[in-house]
Amino acid sequence: MECLSQSANALGCASGSWKIWSLADGYVDLPAASLRYPDNEICKPTEPPQRENSLVRLSVNCFLFDRSGIDRVLIDCGAGGSWDPSMGHLKAAMAEAGIDTSSITMVALTHAHGDHINGLLTPDGRRAFGNLSKIVIGEDAVEEFLAEPGLAEFRPLLAPVNGGDRLADHLLAVAIPGHAPGHMGYLLSTGEDDILFCGDLIHVPAAQFARPELTWAYDDDESKARASRIKVLQDAADARTWLAGAHLGRPGLGRIIEEGQGYAFIPAA
After folding, report:
1. Distance between CA atoms of 208 and 43, rounded to whole angstroms?
2. Number of domains in the chain
3. Which CATH number goes with the domain that contains 205?
4. Residue 222 phi, psi (nearest 5)
C-alpha cells in the first residue's frame, strides 16, 4: 500500500486499482478504568500514577475505499451530533480529502453503536449522504439499529449480512464477535493487499496490542471480544493483513508484527 496524501484529518492511500482513505470523525475521552485484566482487575499503569477519574483518548475513525470512482464504500460514519462535540467531524475530513458526500451510495457498518451510526445525520439533523441507497449491517445488529428512533428514515436501506457473506468479489464480511451484537469486519482484497476494517476490535492501542488479553468494559461480552482480538491479531500478523480500526490512533491504518508476548502496530503513515 502506498500513501498518496495526508492532511490533519484525512489520509489517502493506493493499493492496486483501489484508493483507501482514513477519515477522522474526531475523538472521545473515556474512563481509563474501563481497561481491565482478564480477572476483571482494573488495569493501571505504574507510571505515571493513575487517578480514579483518569481518562484515555480514543480516536474515532471512518474509512472509505473505491476503485476508479465505482464500488465506493464508506465503513462507519461517525457520531454525527449525538455525543461529545469532539466528534461528528466526518464531513470536514471528507472535504479535506476532496470527497463529495453526495458520492456515497453505500455505507457498511461494523456495528450499531452511536459513534458508528449516528453520522448518517449531520450534527444539525440533515441527511449526511444525499444519495445513500444501501446500508450493510450485521444481521444481529439490526435490532439495535431499529431501536434508534432518530434513524427511522434509514430502516428501508438496511441490508443485513452474516460473517462469510461476500458483498462482492473483492469484499467479504467477517464476523468479529464480542464487542457488540452483530459486530462485523469487512475484508477488502485489492489484488496487492488485504485490508481488514475491524471496527472496535481494539479500543486502547497503547495497551491492547502488547497485551491483547486486556479487556474493555464497554464490550458486550469481554471474553468473546478477547478471543476475537487474539485470533485476529495473530491471523493479521501471519498473513500480513492491514488492519483499519475505528479507535486506533490516527491514521488508524497499519500492519501488525509480533513483538515479545504480544504485537506492535506499524501505522501506514
Report:
1. 11
2. 1
3. 3.60.15.10
4. -65, -35
CA–CA dist 141, 158 (Å, integer): 11
Q: Which three cell numbers stand for residue 48?
A: 505515571
- For the stretch 193-205, pLDDT in tens is 999 999 999 999 9
Please compute the mean of the pLDDT values over residues 216-239 and round it to a whole number.
97
The answer to whether the peptide bond before residue 212 is cis (omega within 30 degrees of 0) is no
Only one residue has cell 476503485, namely 67
- Pairing verdict, β 158-161 and 134-138: parallel
Q: Which domain holds residue 225?
A: 2-267
User: Considering the entire predicted model, what is its pTM?
Assistant: 0.94
